[in-house]
Amino acid sequence: MITVLDLLAGHHKEWIKMVHKFGAGSYAEDIVQEMYIRLNKYVENPERIMYKNQPNKLFVWVTLRNMTRQFQNKKDLMVYTGDMVEYDVAEEEFDRVQAEGFEKLIDKVWEVMEDLHWYDQKMFEVYHKTDMSMRDIEKETGISLFSIFDTLKNSKEYVQEKINEDYEDYQNGESERI
């Protein structure tokens, strides 16, 4: 039986390229491996990170981007002493709270999207849950590029307006307020 981790690992090289583009350099492999561990440990419902039996690339992209940013913020503070240091329990708790906060934030996005028209919801879903570009959507559906762009722009602005406070809470490490 194929597990979610097997499906995620099938895109391993793609995830590493993603993290390289975020500027992680030689630490890309470590960040991707850490992502596998976090997703396995903190995602209670594996279907949340799947779309049509494939990994949801938006979810993975956001997860990797956030992990890379966390790494880059901590990188300047790290000093190698030659000794192995045990993983701090407080840091593990912080990671768990961050993951739960992220899941709440994603839930809020999809909850807010339910307020939009059916067309806006579907366009947002197709664009963000598949690897199709706006031009690919245009070719597949015959919908004008301008209409697709305008719909996605308006949907994004609407979502940002509705979840701005929750996003700020998440960014400030106050995930319990979401």
Main beta-sheet strand count, sense and barrel state: 2 strands, antiparallel
**How does the helix and strand content classify structurally?**
mainly alpha
Discrete helix count? 8
The global form is: globular
How much strand content do the residues show? under 5%
Number of DSSP strands? 2
Question: Helix and strand string, N-terminal first?
Answer: HHHEEHHHHH
The residue ranges in which pLDDT falls below 50 over 5 or more consecutive positions are 77-82
Fraction of residues in H or I helices: 55-70%
Q: Give the integer mean of the pLDDT values.
A: 81
**C-alpha Rg (nearest Å):** 18 Å
Strand line-up across the major sheet: 1-2
**End-to-end gap:** 36 Å
Task: Describe, in plain words, how this protein is organized in 3D.
The chain is an all-alpha fold and 178 residues long. 69% of the residues lie in helices and 2% in strands. The protein has a two-stranded antiparallel sheet with strand order 1-2. Strand 1 and strand 2 form a beta hairpin. Helix 3 packs across helix 4. The radius of gyration is 18 Å and the shape is globular.
Key terms:
8 helices, single chain, mainly alpha, 178 residues, 2 strands, globular, two-stranded antiparallel sheet
